[in-house]
Model the fold of this input.
Amino acid sequence: MKFRTVLTVGAFVIALPACGSSASDAKPTSTTAKPGASSTSTTAGSRGPTAWRDETAEWKSHAPRPFAKSPAGVAEDLAAAWRGSDTSEVGQITVAGVRPGEPLVVVLRETGGVDAAVASTDVEITLEGGDEGWAVTSARARDTCVTQVDPADPTHCT
Done:
């Protein structure tokens, strides 16, 4: 099967089939990029990911105490904290990636949120290990726009 278009969404690369093939023939593939790895940026006014925005204060309030768990357990607890923040405003939250080590980096993804201009939101949370467990040190988020990146604010979709 020939693939013509490659669409980069957050940390995934999806190959779309060329015109003329049926949806039942299409077998998109995806690969997970290393969280925190640089990716192609999108300029304001185009579709694709927005610029990263700092959400450290929000995530320190979601997780005010260190986690004394494995990296996978920390990732699940962070996802649960996001799900529990306000279920009327939150779509489906999944753990998109965990990079163990020092620091620990967890990537969460929201799909199906209330903003129709946003296909998905990726949140990258960095945690440092200590005597009491893993503590949030920084967090950043970016959206993947269905519409386009806002020319006035490249951290949001129009």
The CA atoms of residues 93 and 110 lie 5 Å apart.
